[in-house]
Amino acid sequence: xxxxxxxxxxxxxxxxxxxxxxxxxxxxxxxxxxxxxxxxxxxxxxxxxxxxxxxxxxxxxxxxxxxxxxxxxxxxxxxxxxxxxxxxxxxxxxxxxxxxxxxxxxxxxxxxxxxxxxxxxxxxxxxxxxxxxxxxxxxxxxxxxxxxxxxxxxxxxxxxxxxxxxxxxxxxxxxxxxxxxxxxxxxxxxxxxxxxxxxxxxxxxxxxxxxxxxxxxxxxxxxxxxxxxxxxxxxxxxxxxxxxxxxxxxxxxxxxxxxxx
Length: 261
Hints:
This protein is an alpha/beta fold. Helix content is 45%, strand content 8%. β4 (193-196), α9 and β5 (212-216) form a beta-alpha-beta unit. The protein is globular, with a radius of gyration of 18 Å.
């Protein structure tokens, strides 16, 4: 039996992660991290070698420096944290993170980016129906990515790595970022939907009290997403273009539905 899908049109609001959910920038991030960590591991004789599994287990969905520290800690390697303005060559957590960001920015500007077609169609559908939508991303590059993908105008609320640093929000999987997204959008998480492709993000949304957490499996694994808090898992958001579930727990009130009909 196919998994029952919630009707997103009846949600109070829908908060999307960015990389891997709206845009295929997760692939660009993965390549940039691999270049940086392959070099670090080789020079420092760190074993076992860096792998894609490390990305999903320790880096994906987290703020940049938290991801660096988490991965190095997994290998029992500790380096000074440093400062956010460390040069990319600095052998600190911040320096390594800034090195990766430079590689990511170069790739983004040379290759460009486009939204996933199914994701674009869904945000257009939600916008037309008057459903409030926002972005909750750990990336400090979120504004640049959204603009490059041509979808920034859809989102009145963007809670990203820059906002998290400014407001002292803890990195996913803590509840802070998804809680802040709902508050900024003016919606109740218990009647809203979070959409995530990372286990840390699914855990963040679940901890923030979202009734529905949609996991988008683009490599993380359906079982891992469910274990982290996803209530439903899909492989692409295009499945929501025709899906409806009138009896979903995450429904808008009758008055709200009438106002946006």
